[in-house]
Amino acid sequence: MKSLVRTFGPLVAIAVLAVLLLVVAPAVLSPFRLNNLGKYCCWAIAAVGIGLAWGRGGMLVMGQGVFFGIGGYAMAMHLKLEAAGPEGIPDFMLLYGDGTMPGWWEPFRSGAFTLFAIIALPAVAAAILGYAIFKRRVKGAYFAILTQALAVVFATLLIATIQETGGFNGLNQFTFFFGYNLYDPVNKKMVYSIAAGLLIGCLVLVWQLYRSRFGELLIATRDAEERVRFLGHDPANVKLAAFVVAAVMASIGGAMFAPIAGIISPSDVDATASIFLIAGVALGGRALLLGPALGALAVGYGRSTLSESFPDQWTYFLGALFIAVILLFPAGLASAVGRAARLVVRPKEATP
Amino acid sequence: MDSFTTPLLAGTATGALLLIAALGLALTFGQMGVINMAHGEFLMAGAYTAFVTQQIVTNADISIVVALPAAFVVAGLLGLLLEVTVITWMYRRPLDTLLVTVGVGLVLQQLAKDIFGAQGDPVRTPTWLDGNIDVFGYHWPYRQMFTIVLAVMALIALAALLKYSAFGRQIRATVQNRDLAETVGIRTRAVDRITFFIGSGLAGIGGVAVSLISGTNPRLGTTYIISAFLVVVAGGLGQLKGTVIAAFAVGIATSFFADWTSASMAQVATFALVVVFLQLRPQGLFVVRSRGLA
Amino acid sequence: MFSPPTRHVIGTVVALTATLSLSACGNKDGDGSAAESCVDTSGDSIKLGFLNSTSGAMAISEQTVRDSLTLAAEEINADGGILGKEIEFVEEDGASDPAVFAEKIDKLLTSDCVAAVFGGWTSASRKAMLPVVEANNGLLFYPVQYEGLEASENIYYTGATTNQQIIPAMDFLASEGVETLFLAGSDYVFPRTANKIIKQYAAELGIEIVGEEYVPLDDDDWTTQVAKIVDAEPDFVFNTINGSSNVGFIKAYYEQGLSPETSPIISVSIAEEEAPAMGKDVTGQYAAWNYFQSVQSPANDVFIRAFQDRFGSDRPTSDPMEAAYTSLYLYKNLVEAADSFDVDDINESADGVSFDAPEGTVTIDGDNHHIAKTGLIGQINADNQFDIVWSSEEPIEPDPFLEGYDWWDPTAE
């Protein structure tokens, strides 16, 4: 019986979260608050991926905003083209450009291609970058710094390419989401539900990954990379796989963020935004199953409400959160709770 | 304007600034494995020290001279405070020091904003730095030369300290083998603290140089921290010459890219260059082989 | 791969999630008409929203706007409010982040049920708020000069559009006999768009553009780019740099031996607030605005005195502050002209509504929701105030899409 609880406890927890997000929240929250919760879910989806790469894989990915942005911009490009109509081109290209559309925008007219790109683009980008980094055994702090530099560079690139990506303004003014009018409250609720559903889906996937042989290998790589190598596995491949999955999850989060927030801009994907994603994971517990997602939801909620009540002090809260959590609860706040409820959820403790 | 001289000279000055910022990082990273993301904010603290000094010593010609040691001490003390209160609990957790110091950086930025306001406060250039000499058509500002001189002096002072002083020997011993150093009676924790003080103090001096380029504003540190870290990564750990070469290479490369394309694209190109370079030398330019890094 | 019980449980969770997700099915045929307004006009007070960044990179600029909005609200309340209702203002922080602006204006309109929102600074923040304010049929008053090419039924623009600031600046340069011009700007939408207009108008005026340089918003080192100005020896430099980057530009400019005698600068984002914060004496440089603290008018005397009494005698007043102050009074006059807080009523009677603003009398254009403004060129004097050296003959009618200028070709490079 106990082992059953251990095995399925996490699934029950996920199911509870599913009911809360998909049944309770839409029933009790105002459309505005529900939409905000939708945004937090998008960050949570990216956070689940960070939990996989960082918590389980030991790779501190400080630039997940990049992949969040790839998905977000891919979706936003499609929504922009959908708003422009079958032959139309996005308004900002008429305003800031020469009125022609770069060729690489054209495929995003197709919804199917966009969905494909949201998965494939970050996967390819992460695979190339990860291959370059992991095969050369660049790791630890070097890896973290490189990913953060990547986020800075990505945002700079977006800001500088006004005619192609809208620059600093980003992309917004979407009217339709795959044919559904985004101004209709019913449809907004639907988009929210998709985001929440995807979050649950990612959690189930990660739960399964953690139970699999791959999950074991990932932790082994995190804790003793050389030994894994001696055992005949290439740690680079293990890390690469986790990095790619994390990138795809960030991309999915970004893709849902665009229609829910109604905008995607460089501020949503730069180094600061990436740090913000990390904050949630650290708070919730990087190596736990539900920790990253719950942490991201909490930090997102905190950002909205604290900035409403204490607009000037919000940065202090975020800074203090990092210091306190990493210093006192390196395994996350949820680990303290988790320890108390060990019978229900049995986490694999992180070795910092 | 010469399309070779200008980027070369301007890039050398940028490189000098990166060097001052990166020296402190390389020192603390190399010795303690601490990745101090708040290092940029120490740079900012140096810039604000220059500003405050100018409020007290209103003569800009003199205040800059006072500001340099003052900034070294202010930033150094901030570093020491960080070491004693936070870092000391997290040795052997390098990635965690990175995150904690991100938080410290955020708090320091907000603190600077609350104390000084978010707008750049002006630091006036001393008259003896206000001017230029014509080098092949480039009106090379004295300020850029001053930055280079400052970097070279900081480098020489640091190198001399490490090489010739007893304390320098203790630092090198600690870097190369902490356990053995302790066995021979070196108080490695005290050495760590002084190293952190010196490393952070160097950032303060860099901040004074930055305050002459632009204003002082709370986000000043974030502009330089990533480039400085890229320098450390590309330069490798353990030897100052790696940091020196990498700093000037990154500075000059960025300047040339900016000249050929645009300032935005130069950032992108420089990053690509560092990643490609790491393909060739994943440990950076130079590495001390006797010691593994976390 | 999966053991049988596992498969069951996964199946259950996935099915549960799918069912729950699908239960909130979309409505494809909906017309998506705007939500009903929840503004409550029955009480003694009316709620307005002030949405400015009080944190992040834009905080210092936007805080000045917040201050003038607060002043205007207090003045109006002391004078009996709007239609006899006291203004109750809800303050929100845009955090210098467009997505936060979109979130907060949604909150203000749908949760706080404010009758109108005042704020925004960057174009990015305005673009982010635009679809939200349109979807909710709300009202936004935007107080900053911007790159034009926009007109929304739900936004009133009380700052200048390009034909009230950029084009007058070019007319001034032409009147000064300028033949060569160098363009320096931050790398984002406003400078790029402004420079596109400048280049086309320069061709019309016979002014040669001898260089064009951009530096990222948060990059303050202009040394290399200024070297190109030195090399080009332009008659004038047109500066569209934003924020603190100006300091780096100005310092590099003087260091390399440039001065108002050789290549003077005309700026569109340096005002009374910024001029003393450059770390250099910028006497003799120019700026194009529609208001300066030095404007002579009874309304301006009142405004300056009230503002300095409230916030300190050392505080200068500037164009965006004046435009924000004016926006709240314009709103009061709009509501009173319509005798209603309803957005559609207000829009219907908006054309011609005016206010004796500190910059002079301003009048709303009912078609594009901008206001007629006088173009002014000021030269910085030793007190960091602006001596007005040129002004358009009369208030310039707003033309955000530059339809009245036949040299303008929006699709040209």
From TrEMBL, chain A:
Membrane topology according to the record: Multi-pass membrane protein
Official protein name in the record: Urea ABC transporter permease subunit UrtC
Protein localization: Cell membrane
PANTHER family documented for this protein: HIGH-AFFINITY BRANCHED-CHAIN AMINO ACID TRANSPORT SYSTEM PERMEASE (PTHR30482), SLR1201 PROTEIN (PTHR30482:SF4)
Residues passing through the membrane, by range: 111-134, 141-160, 166-183, 190-210, 240-264, 276-302, 314-338
UniProt-recorded Gene Ontology molecular function terms: branched-chain amino acid transmembrane transporter activity
Alphabetically ordered keywords of this record: Cell membrane, Membrane, Transmembrane, Transmembrane helix
Presence of the UniProt keyword Methyltransferase in the record: no
GO cellular component, one term: plasma membrane
Signal peptide range: none
Gene: urtC
Main localization, broad class: membrane
Record bears the keyword Transmembrane helix: yes
Superkingdom of the organism of origin: Bacteria
TrEMBL record, chain B:
Origin: domain of life: Bacteria
GO cellular component: plasma membrane
Chief location of this protein within or outside the cell: membrane
Regions that span the bilayer: 62-82, 145-162, 194-214, 220-237, 244-262, 268-288
UniProt membrane topology term: Multi-pass membrane protein
Keywords on record: Amino-acid transport, Cell membrane, Membrane, Transmembrane, Transmembrane helix, Transport
InterPro entries membership: ABC_transp_permease, ABC_UrtB_bac, BCAA_transport_permease
GO biological process: amino acid transport
Pfam families linked: BPD_transp_2
Record localization: Cell membrane
Presence of the UniProt keyword Cell membrane in the record: yes
Recorded GO MF terms: transmembrane transporter activity
Family statement: Belongs to the binding-protein-dependent transport system permease family. LivHM subfamily.
Listed name of the protein: Urea ABC transporter permease subunit UrtB
From TrEMBL, chain C:
Classification via InterPro entries: ABC_urea-bd_UrtA, Peripla_BP_I
Listed name of the protein: Urea ABC transporter substrate-binding protein
Superkingdom of origin: Bacteria
Transmembrane residue ranges: none
Secretion signal span: none
Gene symbol of the encoding locus: urtA
Gene3D superfamilies: 3.40.50.2300
